[in-house]
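Our preliminary data section would be incomplete without showing what the modeling component actually yields. Below, a chain of 589 amino acids is followed by its predicted structure, encoded as tokens that our downstream tools consume directly.
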Amino acid sequence: MLARIVFIATPVHQAALARTFTVDTLADTVALDGDISLREAVRASNANAASGDALAGDLGRDFIQFDEALGNGTIILTNGELVITEELDIDGTTNCPICPVLPKKGASDQAGDQITIDLFNEINISGNNASRAFVIAAAAQIVRMTDVDILQGFANAIGGAICVDPGETLNLTRVKITDSVAGVNGGAIYNNGGRVDLTSSTISGNAANGTNPGEGGGGIFNHGLATLTNTLVTLNTANMGLSDGGGILNDSGPLLAVNSRIINNQAARAGGGIENNFGAVTLTDVVLDGNTTGINGGALHQSGPATATIQGGTITMNTAGQEGGGLWNSSNGTLIVESSGMGGTLIQENSALGTGPEQSGGGVFNDGGTVNITDATIKGNTAMGNDAGEGGGGIFNDGTMMITNSILGANTATNGLGNGGGILNSDGGSLTMTGGNIDGNESARAGGGIENNGGVVILTDVSTIGNTTGINGGGLHTNGTGMVTVNGGSFEANTAGQEGGGLWNSSTGTLTFEASGIGGTTLNGNSANGDSADQGGGGLFNNGGVVSITKATITVNQALGTSGSGGGIFNNAGIVSITQTLITRNDSS
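Predicted structure:
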């Protein structure tokens, strides 16, 4: 029998590429005292030379772990920040001393069931409200931290807890950063041109105290690449002066967040949750809830030629002092809202409190840029604008907007003389909507469903149902030289307090009805309640403009006021042309 001998070569350099340090004291010292401190371990790793009782680090990546006797104790950095200049892994887990035989999170028992109980302590590292905890400095390359709690960091300018230098990478897994403060930017983290990846981590209760626009980022200031996965950003503030980004300020860099929550953050000027300043943001199945800002963009605000893509997730109960309770897009920004693999985006119960000219936009405010919304639900949002040109409970558009297969429902602009319960399309706005519903919205003055204030609106196969307004245009109201084209779809059961239960066209407006590929437009069951003989128009009121109707059905509409006129159509000194259209069973007083 022949025997074959196989030699397995192990690279001789492997053992020389890593040193594992076990920190066994909470003291922040460098001394030959028989204990290894965290500061000694970091210094030994950086210099590849002994520091105190820590042996020299090796040339490659080193590892720092913590003795189980430390439990969940706190290392107070009494000697300032820790600067990391070589590759390093820090694992803050310390074994639970009373249950060492139990498995760690993620292990399986004998029956194969997943065990999720984590009975392991985590080390705490405190900046003692006097210094930040870490600087990831030049030549560090990649630093990983796992199961570490960092608290009470402080920096006069940037990065209250951690500062990442250009070109460096920081990976944080199950890390908590709390109660840290930066004098200007990045209460918890300042990424200065590096890469920061957060996984299953928490950024909470931090503050950035910058006072100017473009300053802030109560939780994170990103000037590089940042990714968040299953991460919570909450209760952070940038509320001094005119600062931005209560949760995150994304400054020119890519920011990607997946399955994360950005909730209950606060900014003074813009971006209660996120301020996207000339950057690119992608949010997939992210929760943006309960954020507030003093001026614009309760959940997210864009400045300059920024781009934001929101895929699924929720944007709910955010508040802006003036415009864009949920989302605010700049004059040259691009905002895309679309579905994820989990479903469409929900924009709900956001509030814009502004009452100045062309303010509000409870759910979304577009200040002249480009917005594309697909498969979204925009409902229950509120705009507090109280005069003509103000409102847009669901959406305020002063740019280019396309909406596809989306629902706008139960939004309100009912304060004072607010307009556009569902949508206010301003004089600079171009709105195209295909498919979907505009249902149950309400305004005080005009345009229960849509107020077109001098802009261009194209509706194709849209159902506009059950909207109400206090004065004119229950379903849609056109003001000034606005132009509206309705291709198919329906206006049903809408109500106006005076004129145009379904639609109202101004003296210089143009309103065109045409068939779509599915069929003609239906005006059914709308009502106008004006009492005067020159009021009414249950289905349609034309106040002197130009109306063209082709292949429509106008039926069962009513002018219900005491002397209301024109159950189906009221034409007040305008031009109306009707072709191949059925007008039947309409009624007036």
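Confidence is low (pLDDT under 50) at residues 1-16, 96-119. The longest strand covers residues 121-126. Preliminary results of this kind motivate Aim 1 of the renewal.
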